[in-house]
Amino acid sequence: MKTRAVRIGMTGMTMVLYTLLCLQIVSRWKKDKSSQISLETMPSVIGLTKDGTRFSTESIDGEPILVMLFDPECDHCGYETGAIISNLNRLGNASVLLVSAADCGKVERFAGERGLDTIPGITVLTCQREIFEKTFGNPPLPSTFIYGGDKKLQARFSGEVGIQAILNAMHADAAGTDPNSW
């Protein structure tokens, strides 16, 4: 009798845990889905500059925009940042926004080590984690978004991406073709 009660209790606990797991998965999927939808158009305010000023993409008019979400302690993020810096002249008149939810000190150190503060066309932004996740969801880092001059999403890359894919997407935007159709 006791073993039957234990089995019924264990089965009940398993069902409850399974249900909670399913709810968590569905909740995360909905959050990621809604974040993806909201990124179809460039968010208007996405972070703070080094001096604490709110940065608005409304100040960027008619130019392509490359947004890379990063963490200063991520090796892949450092590699992709280096590739973007090395190929900045090939990006044309694009504005480059590097956005992180990490501690401001770490972000400033990352920017300083790479000389990002002195490179025209690159803006480094920090964002509170809650705002970051509300705006971008919880993507793998680095994640790169390319917006056209009309501030509509042209391409999205999750995880480290080679610079050639970024350049192809940027040039596809300039030519008016869809890089996601390749």
Secondary structure blueprint with pairings:
Blueprint: H1 2-38, E1 45-48, E2 54-56, E3 65-69, H2 75-86, E4 95-100, H3 104-114, E5 122-126, H4 129-136, E6 143-147, E7 153-158, H5 163-175
Parallel strand pairs: 3-4, 4-5
Antiparallel strand pairs: 1-2, 3-6, 6-7
Keywords:
alpha/beta; 5-stranded mixed sheet; 5 helices; 45% helix
Please, could you describe this protein's structure?
This protein has 182 residues and is of the alpha/beta class. Helices cover 45% and strands 19% of the residues. It has 5 helices and 7 strands, in the order H-E-E-E-H-E-H-E-H-E-E-H. Strands 5-4-3-6-7 form a 5-stranded mixed sheet, with helices on one face. Helix 1 packs across helix 4. The longest helix is centred in the first third of the chain and has 37 residues.
Can you write the helix and strand succession as a string? HEEEHEHEHEEH
- Biggest β-sheet strands, sense, barrel: 5 strands, mixed
Roughly how many Å is the radius of gyration?
21 Å
Mean pLDDT: 84
Short note summarizing the structure:
The protein is of the alpha/beta class and about 180 residues long.
